[in-house]
Amino acid sequence: MSAVAIPIDAPSRRLRQWRDIGLIIGLAVCSGLAALASLPGSVAGPAAPLAVIFPPWVSGEEAVARSLATGSRLLRQGAVPFVVVLAPEAGMVPAARPAGAVLMLRLDGLAGCIISSEAEANRL
User: Fold this and answer.
1) Which residue has the higher pLDDT, 59 or 5?
2) Distance between CA 92 and CA 84 in Å, rounded?
3) How many percent of the chain have pLDDT more than 90?
4) Residue 103 forms beta bridges with which residues?
């Protein structure tokens, strides 16, 4: 009769792999929740400018035309042609998302170049 060696570390290796997978999944879930929690909520007050982001293959003229079709005022184009900055009317709900827009962002504290008249008056 011959002796067969049973590897002792096989279950512990499998346990370590599952532990590592669990840690990676837990870290991904926690980072996602932290990112969601850090997003700004709705803000009551004057309407903030909105950045409308289109896919990169949309030309600047087409992005402007689609944005103006919603009835919003155009402030300027972004640094890249597929980003348009809109000014919603005061006291109105934010404009409807233009056709083909991927994302709309409020520029409350993000647009250093856009200074509202109230902020300018408070600064002086």
Assistant:
1) 59
2) 19
3) 10
4) 53
Q: Using DSSP, state whether 53 is helix, strand or coil.
A: strand
Place of tokens 């002086």: 124
Give the 3-state secondary structure of residue 102. Answer: coil
Tokens (6 digits) for 49: 């400018």
Residues 6+ away with beta carbon under 8 Å from 78: 51, 53, 84, 85
Distance between CA atoms of residues 93 and 72, nearest Å: 11
Please tell me the distance from the alpha carbon of residue 56 to that of residue 80, in angstroms, as a whole number. 9
User: Binning pLDDT at 50, 70 and 90, where does residue 111 land?
Assistant: very low
Cite the DSSP H helix spans in the chain: 9-37, 60-68, 117-123
**109 is written with which tokens?**
């504290």
Mean pLDDT (whole number) for 87-94: 62
**Burial zone of 40 (CB within 10 Å; 0-12 exposed, 13-18 middle, 19+ buried):** exposed
Beta bridge partners of 20: none
**Residue listed under structure tokens 């184009």:** 77
**Count of CB atoms within 10 A of residue 51's CB?**
18
